Amino acid sequence: MRNKVAIITGVTGQDGAYLSELLLAKSYTVHGIKRRSSLFNTERIDHLYEDPHVENPRFILHYGDLTDSMNLTRIIQEVQPDEIYNLAAMSHVKVSFDEPEYTANADGIGTLRILEAVRLLGLSHKTKIYQASTSELYGLVQAIPQSETTPFYPRSPYAVAKMYAYWITVNYREAYGMYACNGILFNHESPLRGETFVTRKVTRAAAKIALGLQDALYMGNLDAQRDWGHAKDYVEAMYLILQQETPEDYVVATGVTTRVRDFIRKTFAFLGITLDFTGENENEIGIISAVDTVRLDELGIALGNHLALGTVVVKIDSRYYRPTEVELLIGDPTKAKEKLGWTPKHTLDMLIADMAISDLRLFQKDKLLLEEGFNVLNYYE
Ligand code: NDP
Ligand code: GDR
User: Fold this and answer.
1) Which ranges carry the NAD(P)-binding domain (predicted)?
2) Which residue is closest in CA terms to ligand 2's atom 12?
3) For residue 359, which of 189, 196, 187, 206 has the smallest C-alpha distance?
4) Do 172 and 217 reside in the same domain of the chain?
């Protein structure tokens, strides 16, 4: 039997990297679309790189952009894929308020460009399409937990663009009989998560604070609640959504929600540092109230003045607040469980452990270099 061929847009991103690994392990040939960048931007997929001179490579990269329909059409025509996973997007909610037009173009119209290319190339009945939809569509709370039937109320230019992408995917399915589906994925994180999303910002800062490389972590809204899962589990769901008899849309979530403040607390606790939060709104602070010396020792963290009880390590900076916030997300993954047989393997504590250890090891390396006289501090913000 011929091996399947997939295109992944956004291959250099968090999900692109995990999905590439998954599909390659299932013997797919994977064509990734990446943007041209003035610096290397393939760090997350370098371990999958194959010398293009080898015969029949199974991991092939193409330059491309969701804002360039001719380029997308040409790649789809050349590759004739069985499956397209459209993961590319300007994916940062806060940044979408600064770049609303670009976000609409890439995240909204970009999806149309892919659907229309598949249709015009006569691939409607061959190529299955996965659209990376999002729990941000729910926005202002209409009902909880949020399921496939909960009404949308987007609260950012990002979410509004993704709402267009959601409906144009549904429309092409209904109008042209295409196998096109939305995965409405709730927040999913990992050691590969972009550094400016809240979980990774916290795990990086907690590791640096523990090692004495950073004084404080500046945060926005600590009250927001998110349903956080592990990206490794969520790419499995993407794959399963394209392997069904009929194309449908699915919510992918854990069904558990946690406040940002508690994510911070749990991350520091994992490293052996207990935090107390006091004060309100913009005056809220997180203070070290206890340290577990056995745990610090176990992780190779030296106890010093920087971990003295009473030290303020979390502060609020209003620049991280959003003009309109999504306060509460909690997903109902019943349909994905029943129809796809999908269930997440990681709990929030496992996710935090994975991310915190990874960042701790990263900065322990930097600390070692510093101690040996290399000026790595220049890299720090
Ligand atoms: P990332 O931000 O890590 O990755 C986004 C990818 O899209 C990167 O490869 C980026 O390239 C690429 N990209 C951005 N703009 C363009 C463009 N104009 N043309 C081509 N490529 C572009 O996101 P995630 O991996 O976390 O998310 C994957 C998808 O899933 C996104 O669409 C996101 O909106 C959506 N999503 C994510 C969730 C999450 O919690 N992670 C939840 C629900 C949906 P570069 O590396 O060059 O920046
Ligand atoms: P989100 O993720 O907006 O849910 O979008 P993010 O991690 O950016 O924010 C989660 C919540 O944390 C609050 N917050 C902060 N967020 C950031 N980034 N930085 C801070 O300092 C900070 N302080 C508090 C936010 O206000 C928010 O409530 C992610 C992206 O991956 C989207 O692409 C995806 O569609 C959704 O998840 C599901």
Assistant:
1) 7-355
2) 198
3) 206
4) no
Q: Report the alpha-carbon distance of residue 286 to residue 202 in Å, rounded.
A: 13
Catalytic-role residue among 136, 199, 257, 267: 136
Residue 379: predicted pLDDT: 53
Q: Determine how many CB atoms are found less than 10 A away from the CB of residue 171.
A: 14
Q: How far apart are CA 194 and CA 43, in angstroms?
A: 12
User: Among this protein's residues, is 136 annotated catalytic?
Assistant: yes
Nearest-atom number in ligand 1 for the CA of 66 is 19
Domain that holds residue 157: 5-185
Exposed, middle or buried, 181 (CB in 10 Å: 0-12/13-18/19+)? buried
Q: Is the dihedral of CA 316, 322, 326, 327 positive or negative?
A: positive
DSSP type of residue 136? G
Residue 134 annotated as catalytic: yes
Q: How far is the CA of 15 from the centre of ligand 1 (A)?
A: 8
Pair (215, 358) in one structural domain: yes
Q: Does any domain span residue 252?
A: no
- In the chain, the amino acid numbered 178 is M
User: 139: closest CA among 183, 204, 184?
Assistant: 184
Residue pointed to by tokens 């015009």: 120
Find out whether 136 and 154 touch, Cβ atoms under 8 Å: yes
- Tell me, yes or no, whether 140 and 163 share the same domain: yes
* pTM for this prediction: 0.98
Q: Does residue 122 lie in a domain region?
A: yes
Structure-block tokens of residue 44: 């997350």
Residue 240 lies in a domain: no
- Give the CATH number for residue 19: 3.40.50.720
pLDDT, residue 381, reads 45
Low-confidence ranges of the chain (pLDDT < 70): 377-381
- As for the ipTM of the complex, it is 0.99
For ligand 2, atom 21, the nearest C-alpha belongs to 219
Return the pLDDT at 378: 57
Percentages of the chain per state (helix, strand, coil), in multiples of 5: 45, 20, 40
Residue 343, Cβ neighbours under 10 Å: how many? 12
Q: Which residues of 315-326 are buried (b: 16+ CB within 10 A; e: fewer)?
A: bbeeeeeeeebb
Decide if 158 is catalytic. yes
Q: How far is the CA of 127 from the centre of ligand 2 (A)?
A: 33
> Which among 197, 202, 203, 222 is the best mutation to test ligand 2's pocket, defined by most ligand atoms within 8 Å of the CB?
197
Are residues 55 and 104 both part of a single domain?
Answer: yes
